[in-house]
Amino acid sequence: LLYQISKWSKKRVMDQRRIRIKRTRKQCLMLWKLISMSALLGALKSARKDHRNNT
């Protein structure tokens, strides 16, 4: 019985760890998307400024 309980708790800990890794990966993806979006917007803004200055 004790052996089974320890086995189950180990499996549970592994599952929790896996879930946590998935969650952090999701957060990283969200952050990366936000950063890339802001970079794109910044590039567009600067390009628009350059266009105005050229004409």
List keywords for this structure.
55 residues; mainly alpha; rod-shaped
Give the structure's gist in a few sentences.
The protein is mostly helical. The chain has 1 helix and no strands.
Q: How is this structure best described in words?
A:
The protein has 55 residues and is an all-alpha fold. 96% of the residues lie in helices and 0% in strands. It has one domain (1-55). The protein has one helix spanning 2-54. The N and C termini lie far apart (81 Å). The protein contains one helix and no strands.
Fold topology:
Elements: H1 2-54
Organism: Biomphalaria pfeifferi
Protein name: Phosphatidylserine decarboxylase proenzyme
Number of DSSP helices?
1
Shape, per Cα inertia axes? rod-shaped
Indicate how many domains the architecture comprises: 1
Please bin the fraction of helical residues.
over 70%
Q: How much strand content do the residues show?
A: under 5%
Radius of gyration: 24 Å
**Alpha-beta content class:** mainly alpha
User: Could you give the distance between the termini?
Assistant: 81 Å
Number of beta strands = 0
The poorly predicted ranges are none
Largest sheet: number of strands, sense, barrel closure: none
The residue-averaged pLDDT reads 88
- Helix-strand pattern: H
